[in-house]
What does this fold into?
Amino acid sequence: MTRSLRPLLATTLIFLFAYMLAVSQQPAMLSTRVLGNFLTDNAFLGIAAVGMTFVILSGGIDLSVGAVIGFTTVLIAVLIMWLNLHPLIAFAVALIVATAFGAVMGAAIHYLRVPSFIVTLAGMFLARGGASVLSPDSIGIEHPFFTAVQKSYILLPGGGRLTVVGMIMLAVFAVAILLAHRTRFGSNVYALGGSETSAALMGVPVARTTITIYALSSFLAGLAGVVFSLYTSAGYSLNALGVELDAIAAVVIGGTLLTGGYGFVAGTFIGVMLQGLVQTYIVFDGTLSSWWTKIVVGVLLFMFIVLQRLVFRAGPRRT
Amino acid sequence: MTVEQPVLEARGIVKVFGQHRALDKVDFAANAGEVHALLGENGAGKSTLIKILTGAYQPDGGDLLLDGQPIHLRDPLHGQTYGIGTVYQEVNLLPNRSVSENLFLGRQPSRFGLVDRKRIDAQARDLLTRYGLDIDVRADLSEYSVAVQQIVAIARAVELSGKVLVLDEPTASLDRNEVQRLFDVVRGLKAKGLAIIFITHFLDQVFELADRVTILRNGKKVATQALDTLNTTDVVRMMLGKDVAFEHHPSALSGATKGAVRVEFQQIGRKGMAPFDLAVHEGEVVGVAGLLGSGRTEVARLMFGVDTSDGGQVRVDGQPVTIRNPAQAVAAGFGFCPEDRKIDGIFGDLSVRENIIIALQAKLGWFRALNRDDQIELAGRYAEALDIRAADHDMPVKLLSGGNQQKVILARWLAIDPTFLILDEPTRGIDVGAHAEIVRTINRLREEGLALFVISSELDEVVAYSNRIVVMRDREMVAELDGDTIAPDAIVRAIAGTAPGKPQEARP
It folds into this structure.
């Protein structure tokens, strides 16, 4: 077992423990209904966090995620409600725009040698500003396709509902796991996170990989935007404020090293679910302020940073 | 073993950095089935030559020939396609990935677009067995020792290139057993007909492994010879050379008037560095001779508190002082001009004036800021005293020549009115004229009563200004010469000793 598996294992154990604890307080939480809602409610965060996982694995950061989600929801609303396009066409346009946006950020990071932090910060302001220029007000989306999608789900045993957005998230995670661990692109992402100099010397196409990583992250942010618009039936420039930070938290809690090179996409899934669990518990409890979510996430994050320090500080163990 | 045509040949290579000629018409040839050692002190041009051979640098003149055909290398990857592989001292692999992934990155066998993990692991195991490694190839590379990582790096380089293998100081952080393990691998590759270029500063390893040696000095080739015609002393002599002649300073050699003891070190040392005793007197220059890696710089770092000593004590003018960090050293009146001037010495973007006053300001503390007039006065005084040639003292110090930068650092320490100055390679990378001037400055400071400790690879230079010379070998002070015994020949013999340069313990 490799060292990087240990934080993942820790996250999984903490999630199971926390879930049992929550169930012991609120027995109603042990149902597929709750689990189904978990997936639906956190779909957009999960999808965005997958993109963030690739970015962080490569040693970068993407602060534009929340803004791209917000921008996408507005763009979709504008295309559907003002230009009367079919939602599927609107989704395609939004995804293309988002992907191109990410590719440009990736190119800037690589060719101008600017830290990803700065480039994506600029991207964040651009996307958020662009969304407000399109429409400062919230635009409600009314379309038969939206209604149809929102009403379709797979009934789980026990009465839970696996909605379309939940399924999209699960599919994204499944594809991303293959992409990260079983393709050359995935290997190159880890290689960049390990050492960019070594990676370049070993023949990793650094420029292409960097651009692809940020394009992928923005594509997934766009997809998260699609899901968000399906989830809320509205486009608003201030949607998904700060989601990039939730995504970073999910990635780190999921066991990915913030400096890159180590981590698993599956861990991010658990990271997202853990955040969802805390939120759900607070809803069930009814007396706690929703800000407790932030406090718990903060504590978990801090714990994981310490844990990773301990795990990765150890030197060579074999000869 | 003689082969008519070299595999990789460099003819008349010239490389110029700014005004500095790093390589001056250097010839080099590596034959199939030989281990060819490349030796030289820091700054001799070893690493520049290697970077040209592997494609990391492009030469400003001369030709590279592979199997007799001229080639032009754009970058190391391009060099790899020609069969030239390199393994560096710091393993340039991915510590965060599995061993097999490190071996196959970029050429993973795949099925239906997905990487075939099982096949990679099986192939990696087979490959490493041929190098005598039986390890779990699925574990992260970082879980293995540097020696194993080196062998993995060699395996990758040979698999990808397979004609020429460049080993750039591969043994620097290995212990003796690991070195032997590595050498076995290298001997196996040599038997297979690879041309192996081996760079190191451990002479005994050169004699143990290499067939021929090329020695560089100050960017020029000194010699290429078969090693069985040479002994250690010959090699040391060629590495250190004696072509720069300085007038021996009379007061230096006479060993005459020693003042009182200014600074005294007793049993200062740390892991991997034998404890030493040393007293430096007023108006005395203690020179340090020894090869690269013999512990010269480590001594300087210990003295200045950059590294903390494991024990012992330091006395200044008879009073014990605690030196556990550079700030305490400065407070005790020590100054340190480090070896790598550009990185550790100057503040490149700050002005000449700011660079000169910064140590004094640090010593005064936050609340006693030097006002601008004082700064200008100080900078002017020392610039004049040391003959610092700068158009004006507000220009960034990085625009000055190496010699003038060195004088700025000297001025910085002189401004705090030091008791003891440590100079590590004060003349490195400085042109010949400024070189002589620095030597004169050192002599003058000594006459003014300063205690100095000067490290240099230039033997003639050390002889020119030292009252006493300590010789270092294997991270230990092995000899002390003074008075009449100071002569380059005597020093060469002391450095070569009986068994110079045995592998050291891993550095922290």
Remarks:
- The beta strands of chain A are 139-140, 153-155, 161-163, 234-235.
- The radius of gyration of chain A is 20 Å.
